[in-house]
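User: Last request for today: this protein with zinc ion, please.
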Amino acid sequence: MFSKLLQAVLGGFFALLATAAAAAPAEAITIGGNMVKPGTRSDFRLTVPAKGDEPETFIPMTVLHGNDKGPVLAAVAGVHGFEFASILAVDRLADRIDPADLTGTIIFVRIANIPSFEYRVPHFNPIDRKNLNRSFPGSKDGTSTQRIADILSREVVARADFLMDLHSGDAGEFLEPFVGVYGGPLAANFDQALKVAKGFGFANLVRYKMNTQKQVDTGRSLNRQGVAAGIPTVLVEIGENGSRKEEHAEAVATGVENALGILGIWDKPRKNVPPALRYFESSTAVRADHSGVFYSADPSRRYIFKGDFIGTIRDYTGKEVQLLYAPTDGYALYGKRGPSMRKGDPVMTIGNPIDGF
Ligand SMILES: [Zn+2]
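Assistant: Here's the final one, the structure of the complex with zinc ion:
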């Protein structure tokens, strides 16, 4: 009798605790000196100061901060400023999510690489001709791209409980939509990242197993900065050749909204999405040994087999300098359409198929 009573009292107590935890009020947060109050949206710029000959630039942000405490999702678009589908997705998401509905916070980086976007330069920041997605964690005292990376690392990634790195096929690229999920001993909470990845409903899922610190550190991308910071991370890729299709922007937006439900940031019903068709364990890049004019045998996503002809690079006198063949069986996830090619560039990236994970 007594124990039943105790159970009832304790049960009530814990239920109360759970309710209290679910409804804990959020406090204001400050990002780069900009205070965001609970239940509000805030739009501001993080300034990337001028240095030497390099002009000042900025990172446009929208933060949606819920009334109640909860997880922080950072969704970053435009690390490559010519990859438009993800940039357009974040633009619409910032308007259609009401911060009052959130238990937690969304930090949207609307366009990480404004110089690349405004000057319409694919792959690189035109100020210092560096690839932001190889420049993390960045440096306060470095060149323009390194300073952008430093601010993103400190003000965005370091605050997040979950990171989404949103990309598209850049100019001159073909690309099959896929979501990359970080797993392996150095990645955090693969199961949660996989659930979020499946919420996008893309046909292809790629697991990037982080086994060594060297893998995390070499030419560190934004997504691997998430891994280094110990947060679950996904890489989202859709669209090709600098496209800006409505269905691609909407597919990214759906995936982000589904993630809000999976992460417990809101309780709205999730949208139905199809299951993944193909699973890959990392990928294999085929690289150019020469700069020159590239003739692709077939610049499209497809199954490919070891020994299949990929294309020819001719030098600037018209001499054939490299014939490229697939080094492995797999699926051509993305690659260069040609004709421009630079020594060291990945010509094609082939997903290594597995049954699932
Ligand atoms: Zn990209």
